[in-house]
Design a protein that fits this description.
Blueprint: E1 3-8, H1 14-26, E2 32-36, H2 41-47, H3 53-62, E3 64-67, H4 81-89, E4 93-99, E5 112-118, E6 128-130, E7 136-138, H5 144-160, E8 165-170, H6 178-190, E9 198-203, H7 204-213, E10 220-223, H8 225-238, E11 246-250, E12 255-259, H9 276-289, H10 292-308, H11 322-333
Parallel strand pairs: 1-2, 1-3, 3-12, 5-10, 8-9, 8-10
Antiparallel strand pairs: 4-5, 4-11, 6-7, 11-12
Length: about 350
């Protein structure tokens, strides 16, 4: 059975990354039908919005999407397409693994972290307004419902993936009501997993220091929206940067998989961009669809090509283009064969 997936190529380097990723996933042995729809800057002229309604309709219909990077203007312009997608589709859980890759020049060799970020509320929801001409106010909303929901997602992920510990990250020493509620919610949920998964908590500033000093002490981190955005980028920096950092946004009725880096418009069309983050986002998609063995095989192919270093992109220290790097991964996968049946 072919899986119909909404494919959003995105802006800038996005279309090149999307094509490379599509070729790798098609070579995995899992059958895909790609429903290509456009969102981002290019959609504004035709539809008057960077996120046309038919894009949301496609994702709702297919329940799964793979998305390239989309430009978000700083300080003005249209609102973030990423934030709007998450809120419109109820994609409450942001999943960001950060795992060391042999062959990359980093300070650590054995980082293996998973960041679980609440995706729908907190300061990052962008509820803000001007207070007179010279002051702006943002509203931070934390609810028990959303906090317990993301905590349970983190613990369920830990159990399903044989992870040892969940760490709740907060600033409850200062924001005693909002972050206090988040921490209380995580503690309440943790009781249901006693004996299965260890639980602890860390204050967010201390957590950042701890991650830089001794990332090996941590496993699954669960955070409110804004802290999750910041700490997940920090963790990406531990393993080689955003160019190798996959991401997923998951809800009850759908999921969107995407690299977390920007659209880099100055490199668009030059066949220079590194597609690793989007390919590894495709690996997360394979796992979500129930093909863990295929996902492992694709991830191993990516890792092997990077470790060998002969056919890697400029940012990884090589001279290969986007398409050549994808070719090397496809070659490593070998000729496509029938994939195992999905496990769920």
């Amino acid at each position: 059975m072919a899986h119909t997936v909404t494919l959003i190529p995105g802006d800038g380097i996005g279309p090149e990354l999307a094509e490379a990723t599509r070729r790798v996933l098609d070579a995995s042995g899992v059958a895909f039908e790609w429903e290509v729809v456009e969102a981002g800057e290019a959609s504004i002229a035709e539809h008057g919005t960077p996120l046309p309604e038919h894009v949301l309709a496609s994702i709702r219909r297919n329940r799964i999407a793979l998305k390239g990077p989309i430009t978000t203007p700083v300080g003005g312009g249209f609102r973030s397409v990423n934030v709007t997608l998450r809120q419109a589709l109820g994609l409450y859980a942001n999943l960001r693994p950060a795992r060391s890759i042999k062959g990359l020049d980093t300070r650590y060799e054995d980082v293996d972290l998973v960041i679980v970020r609440e995706n729908t509320e907190d300061l990052y929801a962008g509820i803000e307004h001007m207070v007179g001409p010279d002051a702006a106010e943002s509203i931070k909303i934390i609810t028990r419902y959303a906090s317990e929901r993301i905590a349970r997602y983190a613990f369920e992920y830990a159990v399903a993936n044989h992870r040892r510990k969940v760490t709740a990250v907060h600033k409850a020493n200062i924001m005693k009501l909002s972050d206090g509620l988040f921490l209380e919610s995580c503690r309440r949920v943790s009781v249901d997993y006693e004996g299965q998964v260890e639980f602890e908590d860390r204050i967010v500033d201390n957590m950042c220091m701890q991650l830089v000093q001794k990332p090996d002490l941590y496993d699954v981190l669960v955070l409110p929206n804004l802290y999750g955005d910041i700490v997940s980028d920090l963790c990406a920096g531990l393993v080689g940067g955003l160019g190798v950092a996959p991401g997923a946004n998951i809800g009850e009725d759908g999921a969107v998989f995407e690299p977390v880096h920007g659209s880099a418009p100055k490199y668009a069309g030059q066949n220079r961009a590194n597609p690793t983050a989007m390919i590894l986002s495709g690996v997360l998609m394979l796992r979500h669809l129930g093909y863990p063995d295929v996902a492992d095989r694709v991830e191993l192919a990516v890792r092997d090509v990077i470790a060998e270093g002969a056919v890697v992109t400029h940012d990884l220290g090589g001279t290969a283009g986007t398409s050549e790097f994808a070719d090397a991964i496809v070659a490593r996968l070998g000729s496509a064969s029938d994939a195992p049946a999905a496990t769920r």
